[in-house]
Amino acid sequence: MSKELIVTILVAYFAVLLLISYLTSRNADSNTFFTGDKQSPWYLVAFGMIGASLSGVTFISVPGKVASDGFQYFQVVMGYTLGYLVIAKLLMPLYYRLNVTSIYQYLEQRLGTVSYKVGAGFFVFSRTLGSAIRLYLATLVLQIFLFNDWNVPYWATAILTILLIWIYTFKGGIKTIVYTDTFQTFFLVSSVLICSIFIAGELGISWFDLYNRVSSQPTTSGFSMTRIFQLEDPLAKNYFFKHFFGGMFLTIAMTGLDQDLMQKNLTCKNINDAQKNMYSFTGVLVVTNFLFLLVGGALYVFAAEKGIALPEKSDHVFPTLALSHFGKLAGIFFLLGITASSYASADSALAALTTGFCIDFLNFEKRDEASRQRLKFLVHIGFSVLFLLIILGTKWYVDSNPKTDIISLILTVAGYTYGPLIGLFSFGLFTKRMPINWMVPVVTISVPFLCYYLDKNAPTWFNGYQFGFEMLIINGALTFLFLYLFSKPQILQNEN
């Protein structure tokens, strides 16, 4: 695809986003920014959450890893389904009953101000780091396939990326994002379908035969690319039960205890609509993840059939083939898909971080509207700058460590930073005790370091055992245990 065509597509795409932002943010106040006036249609929320949940990491890294791991990532996806059920049945009714704007207000009502601030702080730290790393992939694709040829420095690409997000979210907030994410999810799902149909056509087979063709292709380890289950080696990171239960708790933490995705659910009119949204979203998410794995296998089959030399980094495989070797239509949809997946994740995170910080740390609800608008504006800018700095830091880290696997990096970071949130919420939900206030930050900060030490020494201490995504469970369990040890019994007046 020519550079001029790429620029034209991107300009048209963001023009539509700006139009949606204008239409949805008219007469918007701070309440609209944070809650969408609780008028969001559940089906739009459900569909739009696909893009916010998957991000550019799923779009690029999941297909790229099929060559080495086959379809084993689907073990994690299977765990997601159980996690979403827990969210729909346990957490969402709680949030609606308490009528919270920030979900961490539950911690204040149940465990006190210190636990509330600690929980909100962990969300800010986790979501800022994770979302900025995800957005790094989008900037990388633009840099490699567009701006490098024009000698545009990477930092300028990163600034442009952040600026575009800020422009279309700063006024309408979550109300705008419900609609922009729906628009962007359409291109995300369409792109993976178009690319898979193109590859099937190039291989001379029907789309329905693509799975069988991928199944005949071996991974670098020798097993079939479509192999899902790893039940042979309990010591391995990708052992089924590690992936399944790790996926379950990753979902509970990164969706149910995350202001970003829960904020969208809380814009629905009532709990029934919110639960319908969650069930629908779960079904579509499972199918979409399977499609990404199928496309990942198809990419390697296509390259082998055509004799195409692939880049060393697996994260570069999909964009290299789509933009240089696919037809124009498939290339256009890939570009729209990677842009949509990255921006849908980052824009909602930016709005959620602004909401969380304003509500949880600035006593926002006690201020007048003029003060709210001013502070919201400054906080929104502050997080945009922070995103930029983390993106630049990630670029430096990846350049220094060329074998870095972005999706594993993000999920590993989540395992350490979301574990304390699981421990805090579990303690509040399943005990009738109150933690000693000063011990809450001590425990929640110390346990991730303890888990890191455990992870690094596990192969030596436990006969070659390697921790995978189950580290999140251990992190949360240790947080719960230490909070329990440093707590006192108390019967609460406002029991859950």
Topology:
Blueprint: H1 3-25, H2 30-35, H3 42-64, H4 66-69, H5 73-98, H6 105-111, H7 113-147, H8 154-169, H9 174-203, H10 210-215, H11 240-256, H12 259-265, H13 271-306, H14 317-324, H15 328-361, H16 369-400, H17 406-417, H18 419-430, E1 433-435, H19 439-461, H20 471-485, E2 487-489
Antiparallel strand pairs: 1-2
Description:
About 75% of the residues lie in helices and about 0% in strands. The chain has one domain (about 5-405): Up-down Bundle (Sodium/glucose cotransporter), CATH 1.20.1730.10. The protein is globular. The chain is built from 20 helices and 2 strands. The protein is mainly alpha-helical.
Please sum up the structure shown:
The chain is mainly alpha-helical and 496 residues long. It contains 20 helices and two strands. The protein has a single domain (3-403), classed as Sodium/glucose cotransporter, CATH 1.20.1730.
